[in-house]
């Protein structure tokens, strides 16, 4: 073989290799999109952005009783003897406990209603009811309750709690009744 033939064959062979390697156009391969990068872990985000602080979970707490409900449970009426307006010895602890409640609940205001039994005139019982209400008010003030939170009124015998004519019923009507004020 001559050098020329060899060169021609090798050129042909090279062309053949090139043609075969590029060959016919192939179908484009399906390219699947790359998966998104994995989410950054909290440790990775510390450097760029602080992680939000999770608030501690607090158990739902049922609302407590209102001041008016507490007042109704804790403040007790003060009873009096016939034709008397001074606080009885056995009722002084009731008045003092009422004062403690009022001191512990500084937003609560009270109306002391002076009541009497139905014996005696309207005028007499109105005056006696006033005297009874003022007597209990003075006990509250002496126990530290501010005067602007305590009002008084007398109903005398006009608003009885019991309507029968007997000692048990009259005793129920000789009372200073405490009313919650808004």
In CATH, the architecture of one domain is: 2-Layer Sandwich
Write down the Rg.
48 Å
Structural class: alpha+beta
Roughly what percent helix? 40-55%
Strand and helix order: HHHEHEHEHE
- β-strand percent reads 5-15%
Description:
About 3% of the residues have low confidence. The chain has a four-stranded mixed sheet. The protein is 40% helix and 13% strand. Strand 2, helix 5 and strand 3 form a beta-alpha-beta unit. It has a domain of 115 residues: 60s Ribosomal Protein L30, Chain: A (2-Layer Sandwich). Helix 4 crosses helix 5. It contains six helices and four strands, in the order H-H-H-E-H-E-H-E-H-E. The N and C termini lie far apart (125 Å). It has 182 residues and is of the alpha+beta class.
Describe the secondary structure blueprint for this structure.
Elements: H1 3-22, H2 42-45, H3 67-74, E1 78-79, H4 92-104, E2 109-115, H5 122-142, E3 150-156, H6 167-173, E4 175-181
Parallel strand pairs: 2-3
Antiparallel strand pairs: 1-4, 2-4
Helix pairs in contact: 4-5
Keywords:
alpha+beta, 182 residues, 13% strand, 60s Ribosomal Protein L30, Chain: A, single chain
Brief description of this entry?
This protein has 182 residues and is an alpha+beta fold. 40% of the residues lie in helices and 13% in strands. Helix 4 (92-104) packs across helix 5 (122-142).
